[in-house]
Amino acid sequence: MLAAVLTFAGSLLVALLTVTLVHRLVRRIGRRSALFAKLARHAHRPALAVAVLVAVQFSLGVVARGDWRPVALHVTGIALILAGAWLLAALLVVIEDATLARIRVDVSDNRHARRVHTQITLVRRVTVVVVSVLAGAAVLMTFPSARAAGTSILASAGVIGAIAALAAQSLLGNVFAGVQIAFSDALRLDDVVVVQDQWGRVEDITLTYVVVHLWDDRRLILPTAHFLKTPFENWTRTQSALLGTVELDLDWTVPVEELRQELRHALETSDLWDGRVCVLQVTDAVGSMVRVRALVSASDAGRLWDLRCVAREHLVGWLRSRHPGALPQLRLRELPRVAGGVPVRTAAGASDHGVSDNRVFGESADGEERVQAFSGPDQAMQPR
Prior knowledge:
This protein has helices at residues 2-30, 34-42, 44-63, 68-102, 111-141, 144-155, 157-167, 169-184, 226-229, 256-268, 301-322, 365-374, 377-380, and strands at 192-195, 198-205, 209-214, 219-223, 233-234, 242-250, 278-286, 289-298. By secondary structure, it is an alpha+beta fold. The strands form two sheets. The chain has a five-stranded antiparallel sheet with strand order 4-3-2-1-5. Helix 1 (2-30) runs antiparallel to helix 2, helix 3 packs antiparallel against helix 4 (68-102) and helix 5 (111-141) packs across helix 8 (169-184). The relative contact order is 0.06.
């Protein structure tokens, strides 16, 4: 009995000392390496659990005797499988984090970096799920009854798969859509999108849903299948630089060329403009106003929004101070008045003798026929 206790304590002490020494060594190396720093932080606990369970199983296999020995070995084996899966998942997360840390997304042209971040993030979730499923399957295979039932389960795998597919059709559809989004480059983390008439950035992509961070700090959560079935706008799929418009409805007297020069002056004095596009055109001239459209460009969506506001404010202020007559106006014409103060009304179809023909079809013979055709019998017989 004493030998068994000493063996158990010795093996446990060796395991703890080994893990502690390795942990300190990794932490010391981690002062110069981000990879080892993450490894020391995330893998210490699962490695300690694996080492302790290995020591316990070794002790039970060497010195344990009695009917409880198989049960203890079985329980320890299950715990070792779960601890090993925990350690493997932690190592995969450390490797993926280290890969993400080397790819910067805080640069102006980060399209490739965002694509890699999206793929690695989704692959991380898939690997964790796969490791968990394999660990669960390994635990079940430790039971003799489960191994015996494995043949029948595999034989009916087709039927079970069909039933599971019908029961979880929506879930599986979203999972496959998430994998397709990750590798089709249609949507990436930090993409600027317009979906369901809402503007925002893609904050997170999971296997089942996508989180869009809207401009007013709300979160729009949509299933991943939505982005494969419904059209949406991706403003940063190929590049982050964008074009934006500023439209003004002005009077016909607006000096277009001077306004064009003033727009260029406003953009050249702003650090938001990327220097690519500066265009001002009259795009419509109907009714009492003309529509002037300014086309500007910026390096990303956020700077473009601010640049459009700056350009709009500058042009409005310049028009108010330099050309107030070019602002929208409503013109009224005052009619002449007779001595009694009653305005003289002249119809557009009046004759030279001052007689107004304001009837629908006029005084012609064709008009008389139309009056009889489109009026009731009582109205047609009324004197005019």
